Amino acid sequence: MSASFFALFDDIAVLAKAAAASIDDVVAGAAKASAKSAGVVIDDAAVTPQYVQGISPKRELPVIWRIARGSLLNKAGIIVGIMLLSVWAPWIFPWLLIVGGTYLAYEGVEKVWHWIGSRRGEEHTVEEVAQRTEVDEKQIVGSAVRTDLVLSIEIMLISLANIDAESWVLRLATLVVVGLLMTIIVYGSVALLVKMDDAGFWLRRRSPRALKVIGTWLVKAMPWVFRALSIVGVVAMLWVGGHILVVNLAEVGVPWPYEVLHAATEAIHAAPGAIVWIVESLLSAVFGLAWGAVVVAVLALFARLRFAMRRPDERSAERAE
């Protein structure tokens, strides 16, 4: 009886070691996959604060929470979908990544074009902020969750492509960890950023002069921080989208963009790793910019053709609007 009892403890110890090893594999896989999808994560964190601009400060955190909850639901559905596809139709992943990379490149070029042709006076007034309704918030949350859906698909697909585990269960567990980790990082960072100016105003009302100075600095710095985030977001869109396109076009039989990129990095392989990475990222961004510009031009041409095919009275009504 005692031998069986100790044998049971030995079996439990073996199972515990196996479980600990599996947890280590999941954590290591999640760390690697998260690092590979860092560009999309930066893009997600940079894009999201734009959706809460113009919302009453009291409603910012509730709206961010609703977007984060939608993001978690997005990732749950995406994980189920891509795990099933990984068994039944793994050949579709490069095509899905090409579609996602095209979307990122298109969004990046759209934002660059908006910067070029933007006009001043687009800030939200106090009256507009005060008149925000629950319907407006639902529209804002819906728009943000739809954008998050595309970015979450990219994050999950990139993560899956960089998981080395053979076990289906370990891949699933790693994706769940990545999804939770990325959501916490992105929307936790967004919540901190959008409330930073409130913290600055609070510090300005404190008595020590040093706190007042810090508070004033925070209030003045936040507009510049958001502008910098917008730039980082666009660069990340073009860089990540371009790199996804280059790699996955090669997977589906269009190897020349990857060959050009590989030849350029091979030509400077003796340079420090950081220089090679910068050149590779710059070339990926340039390719993303060119690809996105073609997509924007094609869509603009299609819109013009549709407009030209309308009846004269419809065109007049649209111009009047």
Any key phrases for this structure?
321 residues, 84% helix
Gist of the model:
The chain has 321 residues and is mostly helical.
Could you please describe the fold and organization of this structure?
The protein is mostly helical. The chain has one domain. It is 84% helix and 0% strand. The protein is built from twelve helices and no strands. It has helices at residues 2-36, 38-47, 57-88, 93-117, 126-130, 134-161, 168-194, 196-204, 209-251, 256-267, 273-308, 312-320. Helix 2 crosses helix 9. The longest helix is centred in the last third of the chain and has 43 residues, at 209-251. It is globular.
In whole angstroms, the N-to-C terminal distance is 88 Å
User: What would you call the shape?
Assistant: globular
Mean pLDDT equals 77
Q: What does the oligomeric state look like here?
A: single chain
Number-wise, the strands total 0
Low-confidence stretches: 11-22, 124-131
Order of helices and strands: HHHHHHHHHHHH
Strand-residue fraction?
under 5%
Rg calculated over all Cα atoms: 24 Å
Largest sheet: none
Helix content percent band: over 70%
Helix-strand category? mainly alpha
**If helices are DSSP runs of H or I spanning 4 or more residues, what is the number of helices?**
12
The total tally of domains equals 1
